[in-house]
Amino acid sequence: MTDIDSAVIKTIIDTAHDHFFIVEASGRILDVSPGSAAVYGLSREALCASTVQELAERGVLSPSVSMEVIRTGQPAQVLQHTGTGRRVIAEAHPVFADGKLVRIVSRSMDLTDLQLLQDEYKLLQRRFSEHLKHSGRVALENDLELDNLTIRSSVMREVALLIKRVAPTDATVLMLGETGVGKTAFARQLHRWSARHTGPFIDVNCAAVPETLFESEMFGYQPGAFSGAARQGKAGILEMADGGTLFLDEIGELPLPMQSKLLKVIQDGEITRLGDTQPRRVNFRLVVASNQDIAARVESGAFRLDLYYRLNVIPLTLPPLRERREDVPGLVEAQLARLNQRYARTKVLHPGVWSELMGRDWPGNVRELENWMERAWLAAPDEVINVPGDSALSPRRDLQSPLVESECARPSVPAEEQTLKQALDAYECEILSTLCPQVTSTYALAKRLGISQPSAVRKLRKHGLRIGPGKPSA
After folding, report:
1. Cα–chain-centroid distance for residue 148?
2. What is the mean pLDDT of residues 178-205?
3. Whole-model pTM?
């Protein structure tokens, strides 16, 4: 290594925001970045005079990510508790020479910094909201065409305006919010407003892609790549999104091995099909969504910190429906119009239903509201939907026991003017709505119902339901 190369490396380490360690394969520390002293409680000189084994024994590093790399020879990521009482996400990578481990390069980030960044962003959002109100632009009809979005509340209009402002860019957007708040609808609208609107919009539910099929589904494969592969090969989801927008829903459910593969695609802009040796360039706008606290999953080690950095460029939080009840009438009217068109009949709501609609908290948000409307529509025997308090529209709570135990557990006969298929669809939706909060995966749901996992996924997609442990899913 030349003197210039050494000087470049020293400059990188000395000016790094993250906390770098360069460690020999024996565990001896060669160098650390200056900021490490504040996090680990020892001076730079004291750290460099020690080994990672000694620091681990003294509780300065608990655990040592470099020792994990020494043990396995593989990259590692851990949540550390330092001697100063801080929580730190640390990741380390091995350096090999002639097939032998010679160095470990690790970097860490104090999660206190991450929390400060999140608090700063929330403050900026509040200031942006206040600016809109003071400038008289809470009602944004004049400068914002909402297209397919059914919203009337000022808070959601602010979200829509922000989406419209970032849509022309290629910045990655991270949408957060409870299950059913409308993240997919806003992702589609962002695509329509973007310069990529003529390209494809590819929607992927990460929780529904089995880990064993992830590579073949996401990256595609060449003819003969594996037993059972299509003779002509297949383009993967990432390749299909080229020139358009890739929307990855439930990103928090992505297992760690898949996260590293996705990160590489984001960094390199290339994919390689299974069985192929030539990489292919892909160019898509990435939008991701989650109903989980991704920062908390980073802390627990279930989500990669470097991937979180890549995704958390433009974070947007969509509030639950109970905090924007003024959106309920528009959502109800839009869903009623869709149902009338789907079933080729014209039904109207009885005025007495509105107190029920406006009074509920809708823990399942927009999705629960739409499913409630469909059940009400199918249950109404005539042209007027007038069913407040009707038990047929309340999810069954006795499904912990076998689905059919007695005559009382059987569904009633179809209402007048209701076909058998409509009645069965409504009952199937009712069963799934009740079971979704009780199970942790589509595999558990399939086992509970005695069907295959792909069938469970198709039925959930059919009714617009999601698995949501501990939360209503409809």
Report:
1. 22
2. 92
3. 0.60
Q: Which amino acid is at 134?
A: H
How far is the C-alpha of 455 from the C-alpha of 436, rounded, in Å?
Answer: 14
**Residue 341 DSSP symbol:** H
- The tokens for 256 are 């760690």
DSSP character for 325?
Answer: G
Read off the DSSP letter of residue 199: S
C-alpha to C-alpha distances, 310 to 115, 217, 239, nearest whole angstrom = 16, 22, 20
| Strand duo 19-24 + 100-110: pairing | antiparallel
**Coil, strand or helix at 316:** strand
pLDDT in tens, 134-184: 544 444 444 444 556 677 888 888 888 888 888 998 889 999 998 889 899
Compute the distance between CA of residue 189 and CA of residue 183 in angstroms, rounded to an integer: 10
Question: Which residues in 323-354 are b (16+ Cβ under 10 Å) and which e?
Answer: ebbebbeebbeebbeebeeeeeeebebeeebe
What average pLDDT does the chain have?
A: 80
- Tell me the two tokens of residue 12: 């990188």
Query: How far is Cα 197 from Cα 175, in angstroms, rounded to an integer?
Result: 19
Long-range contacts at 33-40 (CB < 8 A, ≥ 24 apart) = 36/108, 38/84, 39/82, 39/84, 39/86, 39/88, 39/108, 39/110, 40/82, 40/83, 40/84
